Amino acid sequence: MRAMTSGLLCVAALALAAGCGREKPPATELGATTPAAGETLTLSDSVISAFIEVAGVAEPVQQAVLATRLMGSVVSVRVHEGESVRRGQLLARVDARDIDARRGQVRARISEADAIHRDAVLQAERFRALYADEAATKAQLEAVETGLERAEAGLQAARAGEAELEAAGAYAEIRAPFAGTVVRRSVDPGAFVAPGQPIATVEDASKLRVSVTVPPALAQRLHPGDSLTTTVEGVAAGARVEGVVPAAAALYTVNALVDNPEGKFLAGSAATLAIPEGERRALLVPEAALVREGDLIGVRVREASGFELRWVRVGTRLGGRIEVLAGLRAGEQVLVPAGEEAR
Fold first, then answer.
1. Which of 26, 64, 90, 99 is 20 to 30 A from residue 12's alpha carbon, by CA?
2. Distance CA 343, CA 331 (A)
3. What is the pLDDT of residues 150-183, one digit of tens each?
4. Which of 232, 319, 216 is nearest to 277 (CA)?
């Protein structure tokens, strides 16, 4: 019994000694995390281009309000709003029966003028021959030549009248000047229209123009062909400066073109242009370092206890990096997860 008791005491003593020699695990502070291995990036200020967003409207480059120069009743309207049309397609027709009636009169005048001209040509040839044989005086020849010139002028006037009538008749047919979409149908069959009254509006939204007004200090930075960034209804797209022209009150209008071949953007949409205004300092982090949880965006920042998740407010995206507006300072270290390269 004495030997057994002594053995138990020895085992207990050894166990106690082992427990006293083991270190306690370090305490983890609230908010600290243990992230996967990756690259640690020390933040520093960067110099970036500064932009100011100016609001405008994206309008189609090609838009036409179609009307007629005639006065009369609308015979037919062959399209509806929202319908796509091709170039030269007949959209509407105006009654032109009075032009058809005048066409017969004009053709009769042309026939008469042509007959007079033919007779004058024969007379001129005859008197030229007589004058060459000294059988007619110079005065007689000059009178015949003058008659020929009048006959030619009369024929030309008659033909010009026919061309004018045909041009007027063309206004009876309203055709699409380019391929596009009918955005407004202003009349219906039976309506009476006067010269200049709108009948239909066609626009081609495959290329949009964003126009904004800026002060001279911003306008002088831009030149035709420069690339800009535009936002149309919240969607970013590329734009090309078409021109910069003076506007009222010492301001300038900047026109930028946006390609829209698939109709992604609707004509008349609200848009903004990012106009360069110089340089500024900014704090940038790689997008790979961002942690997203719903609407919250954060980064893992090195603290004394490890990496701590900190929520931040971000701004502009710049080629794989994103600007941090609040929540970080230069000199702090953030974690970029393994497999992602910091740019």
1. 26
2. 17
3. 999 999 998 888 787 777 777 888 999 999 999 9
4. 216
Q: How many domains does one find in the chain?
A: 3
Instruction: Provide the CATH number for the domain around residue 231.
Output: 2.40.30.170
Determine contact, residues 301/307, Cβ cutoff 8 Å.
yes
| Tokens describing residue 334 | 């953030």
User: Does residue 67 fall inside a structural domain?
Assistant: no
What's the CA gap between 225 and 20, in Å, rounded? Answer: 78
Domain enclosing residue 243, as ranges? 54-61+204-279
Q: Which two tokens stand for residue 282?
A: 């900014």
Residue where a domain terminates, one of 170, 192, 212: 170
Q: Is 110 helix (H, G, I), strand (E, B) or coil?
A: helix
CA distance 208 to 237: 11
Closest to 66 (Cα-Cα) out of 208, 184, 205, 204 = 184
Q: How many CB atoms are located within 10 Å of the residue 312 CB? A: 20
Q: Is residue 101 part of a domain?
A: yes
Q: What is the CATH classification number for the domain harbouring 135?
A: 1.10.287.470
Angle between helix 97-132 and helix 138-170 axes, rounded to 10 deg = 160
Residue 314 CB contacts under 8 Å (≥ 6 apart), including other chains: 290, 297, 322, 323, 324, 325
- Confidence class of residue 341 from pLDDT cuts 50, 70 and 90? very low
Residue at 124 is within a domain:
yes
Q: Could you give the CA distance from residue 137 to residue 131 in angstroms, rounded to a whole number? A: 6
Laid out side by side, the sheet with 72-77 consists of 173-175, 90-94, 72-77, 192-193
> Tens of pLDDT along 319-330?
778 888 888 888
